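ok so i was messing around last nite and threw this chain in just to see what happens. nothing serious, just curious
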Amino acid sequence: MNRQEILVSKGTDLLVQHSHARNAGTKLTLDWFEDIAANRSATERRAATLTTRRTVKKEYQAAWLVKAITCIDLTTLAGDDTAGRVHRLCAKAKRPVREDILEALGLADENITTGAVCVYPTMVPHAVKALQGSGIPVASVATGFPAGLTPLPQRLAEIQYAVDEGAAEIDIVITREHVLTQNWSALYDEIAQMREASGDAHMKAILATGDLNTLRNVYRASMVAMQAGADFIKTSTGKEEVNATLPVSLIMLRALRDYGELSGQTVGFKPAGGMKTAKDAMNWLILMKEELGLPWLQPDLFRLGASSMLADIERQLEHYVTGRYAASSRHALA
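result:
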């Protein structure tokens, strides 16, 4: 089997999507998380060694990078977003890799797209229109993103607005104070109401882990969010001083795995913020593979919240095809 046949084989295998029942949640069960301990030094050591113990090279790396593209929530969350910018981003989501590169990879007929496009609620109608017929879902941040400190009725109304405008996924933010004061019932009730307001839209709970102070708090907040019905747990808004890190992600994945064993239900994971390179994408793919296995390398259970990362992935794929590195400006996004 030559290298292109390996790429097509591995790429096609990785593109197979699976479906699973949504997380129905459970009652608030403090016994599942209240006495948990988290060893920071051990967590950091495990996260550091995961990405150095093995490497993925050549056609295998190219296949993994294609996989990463299908798991990206291509995102614009800027104060100067416009309908034009959203339309350009959606065009990139529908065709994330140049046609000549896809042809060289043998993937021109595989309909490679990003996992979703993520925007503010007022930009949802523009994204829905631009993505019509593509099968790419629109995700909307909501609930007073990024701080989440508007009154709860307004946060719930914002979810409803985004859903009414066509959002298929809702990325909510939690009240960090509830975690910092250990008010688990308030956190559970808040997220449960947000899940109800989301209706048929999949709900991702953003924990803003950079604001939670300890890994123990990260684990507890993850568990409460899943008990309240979150379909995904997400690291960050991208607006905190510290966003997605491998140690924090490792703790969240351990919580996700424990929840699955205790409840029998499956929940997805989304790191977001600060991820800019193809190497970052590879690091999180390796983390998912090592901790949870191949089922979590699918866009229904794993997303990467990013924008500029896609440009670097496309650049690396061009290097694989041509043997030359293009200037970063050749792969600019909207």
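not much to say yet. Residues 238 and 273 are 4 Å apart (CA to CA).
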